[in-house]
Amino acid sequence: MAERFRAVLISRDEDKNQSVEITELGLDDLMEGDVTVAVEATTVNYKDGLAITGASPVVRRWPMIPGVDLAGQIVTSDHPDWKPGDKVILNGWGCGETHFGAYAERARLKGDWLVPLPDAFTAEQAMGIGTAGYTAMLSVLALEEAGMTPDKGPAIVTGASGGVGSFAVALLAAKGWHVIAATGRTGESDYLKGLGVAEIIDRVELSEKGKPLAKERWAVGIDSVGSHTLANVLAGTSYGGAVAACGLAQGPDLPATVMPFILRGVSLLGVDSVMAPKERRLKAWSRLASDLDPKVIKAITSIVAFDEVIETAKRILDGSIRGRVVVKM
Ligand code: NDP
């Protein structure tokens, strides 16, 4: 009998009403690819919440298995880089959007999309990091490549108790930055201080329309929030500083002026994780392996069972999840 496995499936009816369920599929139901992976762990990102609820048009092919991140073992391979038993990670590449993604016990993928699971991590730890931690690392790399060093002044992280924000805090603090966390959860100060935060500000200070230029309060920023928050982060960045923009939790707009760029030489650095080339991914995962204390991953992560993935994906959109959630298969 052909192998059957559990999968989350998002479907659409003729009227474009979306529904989601956990169902059983066979290997023949999977899309084309040159490797098949036994998924050991996955995670719930903000984007997965958008896909499962249909709140944003993340899914572009129907039906769809959502899930943008997975860690697991190669079962079969026609790709020269991979053999059965190899441990791998997948982040992005359109999985859960145009190609069947991570919320299934089996995934068929392109071998070119995969990176090896670093020896430093288990599959669950890698999914604790997931696209959020990998994006935080890409943001740190962008700042470093722009010549930013901790002696230039403080670093602000917005959305600090979210997935990207928590890892951005931990990675910057580990490299000696004085980290200012902007958060709506000022009551979570023990959590943020445990990750290395030196100062906490209420996110409302940044969430309304502000001045084109404000007092210089930080040298760099990692922003996963966008909108007025990013505009205010730019306005408060000191001369010659840089801000990595990677998210839109407040909104995709950028109601800013050019003043920080033309009067203070501030740089705005764009960060994308989905289509980042393999070399960049290998660099980010190698730095995550060397910079992250496993205790930090544990502090940021909670674990849910596969049966809870749909409910968890809905909760991430209302901001009721702190840090990261790993889904154990
Ligand atoms: P989370 O939901 O885990 O974190 C988002 C955080 O943003 C929240 O915890 C909250 O932090 C803050 N926030 C939420 N709503 C608002 C608001 N209205 N105003 C101000 N702050 C708000 O999501 P992730 O960390 O997984 O993702 C964060 C963003 O980054 C998303 O927009 C996501 O799409 C994007 N992203 C982009 C990637 C890329 O490739 N560029 C990759 C991964 C994510 P707090 O509670 O501390 O206030």
TrEMBL record:
<dbReference type="InterPro" id="IPR013149">
    <property type="entry name" value="ADH-like_C"/>
</dbReference>
<dbReference type="Pfam" id="PF00107">
    <property type="entry name" value="ADH_zinc_N"/>
</dbReference>
<dbReference type="InterPro" id="IPR011032">
    <property type="entry name" value="GroES-like_sf"/>
</dbReference>
<dbReference type="Pfam" id="PF08240">
    <property type="entry name" value="ADH_N"/>
</dbReference>
<dbReference type="InterPro" id="IPR014188">
    <property type="entry name" value="Acrylyl-CoA_reductase_AcuI"/>
</dbReference>
<dbReference type="InterPro" id="IPR051397">
    <property type="entry name" value="Zn-ADH-like_protein"/>
</dbReference>
<dbReference type="GO" id="GO:0043957">
    <property type="term" value="F:acryloyl-CoA reductase (NADPH) activity"/>
</dbReference>
<dbReference type="InterPro" id="IPR020843">
    <property type="entry name" value="ER"/>
</dbReference>
<feature type="domain" description="Enoyl reductase (ER)">
    <location>
        <begin position="15"/>
        <end position="327"/>
    </location>
</feature>
<dbReference type="InterPro" id="IPR036291">
    <property type="entry name" value="NAD(P)-bd_dom_sf"/>
</dbReference>
<dbReference type="InterPro" id="IPR013154">
    <property type="entry name" value="ADH-like_N"/>
</dbReference>
<protein>
    <submittedName>
        <fullName>Acrylyl-CoA reductase (NADPH)</fullName>
    </submittedName>
</protein>
